[in-house]
UniProtKB/TrEMBL annotation:
Record InterPro entries: P-loop_NTPase, Small_GTP-bd, Small_GTPase, Small_GTPase_Ras-type
SUPFAM superfamilies per record: P-loop containing nucleoside triphosphate hydrolases
Organism: Kockovaella imperatae
GO CC terms, sorted: plasma membrane
Reactions the enzyme catalyzes: GTP + H2O = GDP + phosphate + H(+)
Main location: membrane
Stated name of the protein: Small GTPase superfamily
Origin: domain of life: Eukaryota
Amino acid sequence: MSSSGSLKRKVVVMGSPNVGKTSLTQQWIAPPTYNESYFPTIEATSHKIINFEGVEYDCEVIDSAGQDEYTLFPSKYAVGVHGYLLVYSINSRQSFEMIQTVHDKILDFAGVEKVPCVVVGQKVDLSGSERRVTFAEGEALAKKLHASFIESSAKDNKNVGKAFEVLLREMQKEYNPAPEKKKSSWWGWGK
Ligand SMILES: Nc1nc2c(ncn2[C@@H]2O[C@H](COP(=O)(O)OP(=O)(O)OP(=O)(O)O)[C@@H](O)[C@H]2O)c(=O)[nH]1
């Protein structure tokens, strides 16, 4: 816990180039922010303090440079990281297939079997004819990876906050679960 009483959470946003990682991050950090132009990111770190389900979180969000299967995995994307947004774009099969690759690399590098993550299908504002990945496929992949799933649009600011909140909940389950509520028993009604 930080000196101010908030819980520090370090999050990395990963996925193929051009899927909307920066747009999603910026829309959450400083809404309303959306840019039609595409400027490839080298790497950017942002901060946000958020109160979620009664807990104050001091979030550090690393917006990574787009990955492909050959990208080396930097140690700073694993060391001290609490959770990941794994982002693809619903109009790109290739970006969808990259999610498994990136996830494998995270587990490999961190030497763990499971890590809090949310699979995010971005650009859900695009028309149906542009869609190349169905909702069900996204959901099935997330299930396989023991992750949560959400579709979002940074452009329309749809499910952007929710994507980060779902990740906060995943991290909460892993690192700061709520104490189990005391069950009342027949000899102690209401206790
Ligand atoms: N239609 C639509 N376009 C989007 C959305 N989010 C981002 N874009 C566009 O997609 C392009 C890439 O967006 P970025 O946010 O830079 O993507 P990125 O994944 O950070 O890209 P890299 O820096 O290369 O990794 C830009 O032209 C954005 O305007 C969205 O929700 N809907």
